[in-house]
Amino acid sequence: MNLTEIQDLIKFVSKSGVSEVEIEQKDFKIVIKAENKSKKEEHTVYVQAPQQIAAPVAAPTPVTSAPETPKAPVASEDSKYITIKSPMIGTFYRATSPDKPALANVGDSIEKGKVVCIIEAMKLFNDIEAEISGKIVKVLVDDASPVEYDQPLFLVDPA
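Given the sequence above, the corresponding structure tokens read:
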């Protein structure tokens, strides 16, 4: 489904009076919800892509007897964690809406496939799922901040 087809579907939903449309195909899922707020229609679109990126960080290498710099202990401490990275450019949101709790917080245990955040791109809200199981150690991006492709979002302890 391309962008034009999605836009046509949104127009159809707004004209038909239907409150929600959900389409699921082999490679994606799209949900369009229409809300009538103070005589102005507002549409929320969620697209769930099949592939999300979570790239592992290289394993720490043994340290020889060479003197260490002050930054070395911090780097080796973070190297045991796996980074969940942004699969796209957009705006990072920790919750599904401002009045809802964050999808993933520091200390939360996550399972593979759990939605950890949402990235809005071109008015489409994309669920970002964890590709690994573990415990969230650090959230690296502030809520409602712009993110770039492949930008680290979370540090996860796989242990």
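The chain has two domains: 3-48, 54-58+69-119+128-157. Try to locate this feature in the token string yourself.
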